[in-house]
């Protein structure tokens, strides 16, 4: 099956060029436009909004955000707003993150737990639940999102991040929770059939051209992702 | 490209997972310098280390060449079962538009033909 194609950009471009790049991505046939959520560049949701307003078809999302630089409840709010502005084209990539933590004074050493808890909270808020949770890394008290949105959430991993062993076990439960509790979104108005298959997790993995001869896109878990990144160093 | 690779190496400390999986060990001199730099997008410290990055590291994480050379590699990735190829475009002097357009208009038609 022919894979979807996505374009990943670091938001280093001024608004004129970013808008033109978004239009080009859509005109040439990319399925998805992903913007890195990294510090300290142009803000990712403002940039995604600009891209949404310049396009009609292409799917849009951060690749990837993280559980630390923005509270997951604020991430839920941001992606829901983008989904509304873009007429249901938003998708949320979330991973461990790397940039800006030192400057922000963030301890990101327990990223596997944080991602799992952030995915869970974000999903529940997007589903319109009133949520109170006290997790190991993510807590939230007694609030509800304004309007439920069906936004696909894609956990991301690329490496054994943080403490030894933590990352290698991280993506599997994250991807499983994504698969088990979040319905696969249909391909919407797109004429192209969705590549998401029931029973398969969405996960953004950083594969690279190195994976010669490998039949599994995930060297750490054996999970078969539906989304991948053909580059060794995309934003996380 | 090479400064970007230095940034990637810094992000992947301490085990340099992507490159280790590709069978590449970080040379000692490069290893020490990578450990000494905080994660940054600031080009200056990355450029200072860039000449230490071996060609094999560049080849391991990039697809470079004419569409006829790139398409089989993309098709091979597609056959691994992934559902989306995400392109991070590179171009001389930051001119990425040509890469963005040619991947979709020249590479992907060849990929589809190969997978058909």
Helix content range of chain A: 25-40%
Number of helices of chain B: 7
Low-confidence stretches of chain A: 159-201, 208-236
The secondary-structure class of chain A comes to alpha/beta
Distance N terminus to C terminus of chain B?
33 Å
Low-pLDDT segments of chain B: none
Structural topology:
The complex is a heterodimer of chains A (236) and B (116).
Chain A lengths: L3 E6 L5 H14 L3 E4 L8 H10 L5 E4 L9 H14 L5 E4 L6 H4 L6 H16 L3 E5 L4 E6 L7 E6 L13 H11 L22 E4 L19 E4 L6
Parallel strand pairs in A: 1-2, 2-3, 4-7, 7-8, 8-9
Antiparallel strand pairs in A: 5-6
Chain B lengths: L1 H10 L5 H5 L6 H8 L7 H7 L5 H7 L5 H13 L4 E4 L9 H19 L1
Helix pairs in contact in B: 1-4, 6-7
What would you say this structure looks like, in words?
Chain A contains 6 helices and 9 strands, in the order βαβαβαβααβββαββ. Chain A is an alpha/beta fold and 236 residues long. In chain A, the strands form 3 sheets. Chain A has a 4-stranded parallel β-sheet. Chain A has a 3-stranded parallel β-sheet with strand order 1-2-3. In chain A, strands 5-6 form a two-stranded antiparallel ribbon. Chain A has helices at 15-28, 44-53, 72-85, 101-104, 111-126, 171-181, and strands at 4-9, 32-35, 59-62, 91-94, 130-134, 139-144, 152-157, 204-207, 227-230. In chain A, helix 3 (72-85) crosses helix 5 (111-126). In chain A, helix 2 (44-53) links the parallel strand 2 and strand 3 (59-62). Chain B has 116 residues and is mostly helical. In chain B, 59% of the residues lie in helices and 3% in strands. Chain B contains 7 helices and 1 strand. Chain B is globular and about 50 Å long. In chain B, 34% of the residues are buried. Classes of the chains: A alpha/beta (236), B mainly alpha (116). Chains A and B meet through strand 1, helix 1, strand 8 and strand 9 of A and helix 1, helix 2, helix 5, helix 6 and strand 1 of B.
């Amino acid at each position: 099956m022919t894979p979807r194609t996505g374009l990943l950009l670091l938001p280093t471009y001024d608004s004129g060029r970013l808008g033109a790049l978004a239009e080009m991505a859509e005109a040439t046939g990319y399925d998805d436009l992903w913007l890195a959520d990294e510090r300290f560049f142009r803000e990712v949701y403002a940039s995604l909004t600009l891209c949404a307003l310049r396009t009609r078809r292409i799917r849009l999302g951060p690749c990837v955000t993280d559980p630390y630089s923005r509270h997951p409840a604020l991430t839920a709010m941001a992606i829901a707003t983008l989904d509304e502005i873009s007429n249901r084209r938003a998708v949320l990539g979330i991973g461990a993150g790397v940039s800006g933590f030192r400057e922000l004074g963030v301890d990101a050493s327990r990223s596997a737990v944080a991602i799992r808890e952030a995915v869970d909270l974000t999903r529940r808020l997007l589903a319109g639940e009133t949520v109170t949770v006290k997790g190991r890394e993510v807590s939230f008290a007694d609030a509800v999102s304004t309007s439920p949105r069906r936004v696909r959430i894609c956990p991301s991993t690329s490496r054994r991040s943080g403490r030894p062993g933590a990352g290698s076990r991280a993506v599997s439960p994250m991807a499983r929770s994504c698969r088990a509790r979040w319905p696969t979104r249909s391909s919407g108005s797109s004429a192209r059939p969705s590549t998401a298959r029931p029973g398969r997790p969405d996960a953004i993995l950083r594969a690279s051209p190195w994976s010669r001869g490998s039949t599994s896109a995930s060297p750490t878990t054996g999970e078969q992702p539906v989304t991948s990144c053909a580059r060794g160093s995309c934003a996380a | 490209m090479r400064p970007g690779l230095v940034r990637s190496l810094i992000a992947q400390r301490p085990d340099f997972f992507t490159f280790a999986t590709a069978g590449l060990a970080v040379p000692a001199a490069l290893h020490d310098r990578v450990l000494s730099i905080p994660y940054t997008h600031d080009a200056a410290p990355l450029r200072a280390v860039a000449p230490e990055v071996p060609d094999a590291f560049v080849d391991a994480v990039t697809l470079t060449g004419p569409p006829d050379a790139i398409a089989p590699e993309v098709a091979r990735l597609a056959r691994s079962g992934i559902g989306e190829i995400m392109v991070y475009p590179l171009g001389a002097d930051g001119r990425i538009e040509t890469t963005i357009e040619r991947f979709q208009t020249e590479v992907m038609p060849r990929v589809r033909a190969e997978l058909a």
